[in-house]
Every structure is written in C-alpha cells, then in structure tokens.
Amino acid sequence: MIVAKFGGSSLADAKQFQKVRAIVMGDERRRVVVPSAPGKRFSDDDKITDMLYYCFYARQRGDDFDAMFEKIKARYFEIANELSLSVNLQPYLEEIHAQIIAGANADYCASRGEYLNGILLANYLGFSFLDAAEVIFFDKNGVLDSEKTNRRLAKRLSAEMPAVLPGFYGSDAHGNIRVFSRGGSDITGALAARACEAEVYENWTDVSGFLMADPRIVANPLPIRHVTYHEMHALASAGATVLHEDSVAPVSQDGIPTQIRNTNDPSHPGTLITSTAVRRENFSIFAGIAGKKGYSLLLAEKQHRDASPAFMQGVFQAAQHCGMDFQLLSVNGSHLCLLIETEQYETKSIGFWEEISEMGVPYFHSVEPGFACIVLVGYGVVHNYQTINRIYKALQKREIEVSMITQGMSEISTWVAVQEDDMEDAIRTLYEEFCRDTH
Ligand code: ASP
C-alpha cells in the first residue's frame, strides 16, 4: 500500500481537492492520505495555519479575532460548498471558536487547520477519519514517542483503512494537543508509512521533485530523479530546502522510499529518495549542489611541533563541549582548520578558547568570517580522484579563490569554501562542470 501526504498548496481550494481525489482514486494502493491545512491559493494569500496562529495571539493580547476567524470559516465553507460535501462543519467551527475564547494553547489552535481539512477530505473521499490526537503521541518533554505512536498507528490504520489522518499534530501524556514544528505534516506521513510498512511514501506538493541546484542561482537546473536519504541530508546541510528533516528517519530506517510528486502535474515521476543507491541508473553521477553563506574559518595552530595528537583532540573536545557543529577542513600534526557557522561560533564559543588554553600548549589561532560553503553531493564524488582537480581548475578559470576543499566523512560530499561574494558564481561554475552533463 501507499501513504500519500498532500501539502497545503495541494489542498488550498476546491479545485485542488478535485485533483487530490483524482490522484488518490487513480491507484487503489493509496489507502492512507495525510493532509496539511489549506495553504496559499496565490502568492500573497494567507495560509490557514498562520491565520489560526493569528487568532491565538490576538486572543492572548485580549484583541478581537472574530474577523480573522470568519475568514478561516469562509475558506472551509467554500471548499465544502463547491464540492457539495455532506459534512456539517458548523459545530466543529463553533467548538474551535469557543476553545480559543476559553484560552486554548497555541498548539491546539494551529492544529485545527489540519483537523478540519482532514474531516473535509475524509468526507470527500469516502474514507474514515482518524484523529491524529488518538494515534500520534508526544512524551512529557514534548518529544515524539515514536514506538508508542508506531504501535497505535499500525493497529488503528490496519482496522480503519482507507483512512484520512490529518498531519502536523498529536497529543501529549495529558491528552493535550501538540504540534510538530512548521511543515510537520511531512513527519505524520512518514510515521504512517512506517506503521503500515508502505511500499512507498508519496509526498505530493507543488513542484515536480527536487532540482540539482537552486533555480535562483542556476538557470533551469536539471531535476533530481533519484537521490538517497544520505545525499539529501548532505544537500540540506548546505542550505538546500528539502523535506522536514524529522520526516526522514521513520521511513529511511525501514528502507521505505519517499517520492516527491507534483499534484499539478501528476504524470511527472518527481524525485525518488531511497535508502540505498542500488537502483540509481548511473551510480557515479552527482546528485546536486548547494551552498550557504555565513561561515567562518577557524584556525588553531600549535607553536611547537611534536607528534602528540593531544592538542587536536583537545580542540575537538572543546568544540564538542560547546555544542558547536563544524566541518573539518584540514588537519595535520600541528594545525587544524574548521569551517563553522558564524552565528553558531558567536553564540556557542564561550569557554572554547579557555578550554584549549588550559591544555598548556602554546598555540596561535584565528577566526575569519565571510565564507560560503558549497557542497557537491553524490556517490562517486569522493571516489573520483579527479574531482578535486576539476574543482580547482574550473574555479581558477573564473578567478574564484578556493579557501579550502575537503571530502566529507560520509564519503558522498565534497565541501568547498569560497568568499561569500563568490558563492553564486562558484555554484554556477561547478554546476556546469559537474552536473549539466550527468543526465
Ligand atoms: N500546516 C502546517 C504548517 O503550515 C504543517 C504543514 O503544512 O506541514 O507548517
């Protein structure tokens, strides 16, 4: 069976609901459907979730929120009326309005967007409605209880399929509604796919999958047909916007592929994300390129050369104690160079140099901001000895100075540090060099 999650723009109005129904009915394996709340119908439209948060904050300030609530009501009624649905939304909306007046918390308010959309969609599809509060659980610290969720979801879904399970929320140990972070319906879909041991988790959105580069930087980048969860993670860590990061683990750990597809172009295959690279047509090609500004180069150098690795270990440990994430650029007997997000360095490095000084080894250090980090991702990137050579040559031709190149420890990525002002040009150059001819 297939779990199909539909994002907010896929369910923004009655016309979009019709497309969703055609997709769901087009394959009888699509037996669990996870909707987001209605999103934008046009670029400066409002998302229902934002409108609900608005109501919550207005109520908190003691301001009137009725005008906004009327707008929310109108959106749902319009969908129900245009599709001639039999469900009566009035009592649900009255209950939500009363709860907001009574001081319901932000999570409850925000979650009602998915809740109401789920009721509408279940009615429209003729599927049962499974309230996520009864099957998605958070522990007392507000962290997802994935095992309890998995057991309960598996049991309820197998009994109630075909079903609509609203995304984004669940309940905590006291029965209060909790939501995931924004975009969290992706996680609900992944949890459902895991619980049902789905053959594929379809994530329907308004784009035909991922692109090999940011289209704001590279003109008409090629689509990514197939990528692994690992590669996707590497691209995301350098700024590519992909799935909600917590939606990967539930499916990738069980080897369930995720397929990104376009509700407005349903015949397009989109992007398939799998745990292993086995099914990739061309094993050695690049998956894509991404880049992010706002990095600093951090250099620590021992003044006396000795063979002891204790100093380097001490620097790593100090970084770890401060909770700083970094990319190792180079290390040898006496020096260590790290690439770290400037904001992280500024907020987390308190005590970092002191801890290193306590080792009693004389050293020199420097921290230079203003760098961008570009990552080239794909199996075969690291194994191809020519890669680094090609990167240097291509960038040199454009007179772009490369501050550092390193190959990621996961063996699927090569990181290139350049000056921030050179990032876009460097991405375009490397895209032309490596990605343009891979399909
Ligand atoms: N509706 C929620 C949001 O806007 C969750 C989601 O769409 O996944 O973030």
From TrEMBL:
Function according to Swiss-Prot or TrEMBL: Catalyzes the phosphorylation of the beta-carboxyl group of aspartic acid with ATP to yield 4-phospho-L-aspartate, which is involved in the branched biosynthetic pathway leading to the biosynthesis of amino acids threonine, isoleucine and methionine.
GO MF annotations, alphabetized: aspartate kinase activity; ATP binding
Family matches, as NCBIfam families: asp_kinases
EC number: 2.7.2.4
Alphabetical keyword list: Amino-acid biosynthesis, ATP-binding, Diaminopimelate biosynthesis, Kinase, Nucleotide-binding, Transferase
GO cellular component labels: cytosol
Keyword Amino-acid biosynthesis: yes
Catalytic activity field: L-aspartate + ATP = 4-phospho-L-aspartate + ADP
A Pfam family the protein falls into: AA_kinase
CDD domains linked to this entry: ACT_AK-like_2
Matching InterPro entries: AceGlu_kinase-like_sf (IPR036393), ACT-like_dom_sf (IPR045865), ACT_Aspartokinase (IPR054352), Asp/Glu/Uridylate_kinase (IPR001048), Asp_kinase (IPR001341), Aspartate_kinase_CS (IPR018042)
Biochemical pathway: Amino-acid biosynthesis; L-methionine biosynthesis via de novo pathway; L-homoserine from L-aspartate: step 1/3; Amino-acid biosynthesis; L-lysine biosynthesis via DAP pathway; (S)-tetrahydrodipicolinate from L-aspartate: step 1/4; Amino-acid biosynthesis; L-threonine biosynthesis; L-threonine from L-aspartate: step 1/5
GO biological process, alphabetically ordered: diaminopimelate biosynthetic process; homoserine biosynthetic process; lysine biosynthetic process via diaminopimelate
Protein name: Aspartokinase
The family this protein is said to belong to: Belongs to the aspartokinase family.
Domain spans labelled Aspartate/glutamate/uridylate kinase: 1-262
Keyword Methyltransferase: no
Aspartokinase ACT domain residues: 374-434
